[in-house]
Design goal:
- By secondary structure, this protein is α+β, with helices and mostly antiparallel strands.
- The chain is built from 8 helices and 8 strands, in the order E-E-E-H-H-H-E-E-E-E-H-H-E-H-H-H.
- 31% of the residues lie in helices and 13% in strands.
- The protein has a 4-stranded antiparallel β-sheet with strand order 1-4-5-6. The protein has a two-stranded antiparallel ribbon with strand order 2-3. A two-stranded antiparallel ribbon has the order 7-8.
- The longest helix has 15 residues.
- The termini are far apart.
């Protein structure tokens, strides 16, 4: 940050810390609304959604959607490139901010914005990481990669399970859809790679139910399929869910 920059701070409550972890971490689920007749999440509702407990209704819906997902083998990864999903972090919702900054502003607390960016560019903040249940201090600059934006359903996984048949605009929307994005610990996100529920789950066992519920909802909204092993892994996680109030 230059000496002449005077950042703006958005008031918010700081997470309680104990031994480097966030206490009382609630199960996280982004409620995905499906656009009437379009089969895609509504931007207006997805942007307002953040982190909610898994309710009995959430769980019932996830079970119904999982049962309806097509089960078949993974298609070849041939032809996959990140660019197939458009430029990274486009301003798809046309709010003047790129998607990465939108998600940082949504998921971090104690957010400081760069002055003159209309509350777009996030300079710093605090992340209560759902993958590890750790508190991470984010600062824009050399250590920016400490916090990354995860595609809950990875782009490569989507490519191998239906996205190859989409048009370019649908893939661009998918890559920037806040319903499928989450600010998380960078190294843990790197370890995830393009794993599906059969090959990778968050280290924080308390978040796995919400994570799988979210994957199911995104796949259902976009008409993606699952492999037999993935379906079985998702089903096991839903069986282990603890329903909140």
């Amino acid at each position: 940050m230059s000496r002449t920059t005077r950042p703006r701070r958005r008031p918010s409550s700081r997470p309680r810390r104990r031994g480097g972890t966030v206490t009382g971490w609630a199960f996280v689920v982004l409620v995905v609304a499906v656009a009437l007749g379009a089969g895609l999440p509504l931007w207006s509702q997805a942007e307002e959604s953040a982190r909610f407990p898994v309710t009995a209704t959430d769980l019932d819906r996830a079970r119904t959607e999982l049962a309806a997902l097509e089960v078949k083998g993974r298609a070849p990864r041939t032809g996959y490139e990140r660019e197939e999903f458009g430029p990274a972090w486009a301003d798809v919702d046309r709010n003047g901010c790129d998607t990465r900054n939108d998600v940082l502003a949504r998921d971090l607390t104690d957010v400081v914005f760069e002055e003159g960016t209309h509350d777009c560019v996030v300079l710093s903040g605090t992340l209560a990481d759902p993958f590890t249940d750790q508190v991470i201090d984010f600062e824009r600059g050399p250590s920016s990669a400490d916090v990354q934006i995860d595609h809950v359903v990875p782009l490569s996984d989507a490519w191998q399970k239906g996205a190859q048949q989409w048009d370019a605009e649908t893939r661009r929307q998918f890559a920037n859809d806040p319903a499928n994005l989450l600010a998380v610990d960078g190294p843990t996100n790197g370890a995830k790679g393009d794993g599906d529920a059969a090959t990778w789950l968050p280290p924080s066992t308390g978040y796995r139910c919400a994570y799988v519920v979210r994957q199911v909802r995104v796949k259902a909204a976009y008409g993606l399929w699952v492999t037999e092993a993935e379906h079985a892994a998702m089903d096991r996680q839903l069986d282990s869910c603890v329903v909140g109030d």
